[in-house]
Specification:
single chain, about 280 residues, alpha+beta, seven-stranded mixed β-sheet, two-stranded parallel sheet, about 20% strand, globular
Length: about 280
């Protein structure tokens, strides 16, 4: 249900300085004109493929369907109301041409909060600690530096080699319905990748809208999702040397962020009944 934005998003992607791409649009049982708009754009450009769900399946199944349908060597995700810079694909491919072993590129994104009147409230770009290649030997040593930039929270700020997804069966957890699925996928991909590249330039604009943003809604399933994401991250921690106090503090900070996410964003959410239940128990 993104009839207000989907056309602009598609047209932004079509401006890419690369013709060697396919665009897969998946309509997850919209009730507005989104599907009609997608089909019209597909008729205009042969690179566009449209998949339609007869019933609503949710973001994880939808993205997994997109991965399975993709014929390309690399995959980039996009939400239905976001925008790309026109050199997003071309710049990442230049990096890969210089080092064909790269399996994952994480690049900068701008987070834009928009109110119900479509006015920008705030804007924040990714702050990176460094740029360059991270090898299998370095990825655990550099993990908390990478984590600090929040590039592993989302999936649409990256380019992923499809072979790695298939080899290690890295798909979105279809039990996750209300957030954290991005982080779990990103963390799993980071853990399995041998060659990772950090590109600090900003290529992706993500709009957080009060009406549509999943991250701003309450659902008890999100608590499960946050916990599953945390479990995935502990697999990475298992390969990190925690004799260094700096790493110990970073791990505790990560644990605190998960607890804060659960407590503040879910238990204390205005639409949550969990706090009331907790008070009754005591």
């Amino acid at each position: 249900n993104s009839e207000k934005y989907i056309k602009n998003t598609i047209e932004q992607i079509l401006k890419q300085l690369s013709n060697n791409m396919e665009i897969i649009l998946i309509d997850d049982c919209s009730s507005d004109n989104s599907l009609k708009i997608c089909k019209e754009k597909a008729e205009e450009d042969s690179r566009i493929k449209v998949i339609h769900h007869e019933e609503n399946k949710g973001i994880c199944i939808t993205r997994n369907d997109g991965i399975k349908a993709a014929e390309g060597k690399y995959i980039i995700f996009s939400d239905d109301d976001d925008e790309w810079k026109e050199n997003l694909i071309a710049d990442q491919m230049k990096i890969i041409e210089q080092n064909p072993n790269i399996e994952l590129i994480k690049f900068g994104r701008e987070l834009i909060s928009v109110n119900t009147n479509n006015k920008i409230i705030s804007s924040k770009t990714t702050e990176f600690y460094n740029e360059g290649l991270i090898t299998q030997e370095e990825k655990y040593k550099e993990y908390f530096n990478v984590r600090k930039s929040s590039v592993l929270v989302n999936v649409w700020n990256g380019m992923y080699k499809k072979d790695i997804i298939e080899k290690y069966n890295i798909f979105f957890d279809e039990n996750m319905k209300f957030g954290s699925e991005d982080a779990k996928f990103s963390l799993e991909f980071y853990e399995k990748s041998k060659y990772i590249y950090i590109n600090p330039k900003t290529y992706y604009k993500h709009f957080k809208r009060n009406v549509s943003s999943t991250s701003r809604k309450f659902n008890k399933n999100k608590i499960y999702s946050v916990i599953e994401s945390a479990k995935t991250e502990t697999k990475i921690w298992g390969s990190i040397d925690f004799s260094n106090n700096k790493n110990k503090y970073a791990r505790q900070s990560a644990i605190n962020s998960y607890l804060t996410n659960i407590m503040v964003e879910q238990v204390f959410h205005p639409k949550s009944d969990l706090l009331k239940q907790f008070c009754l128990l005591h």
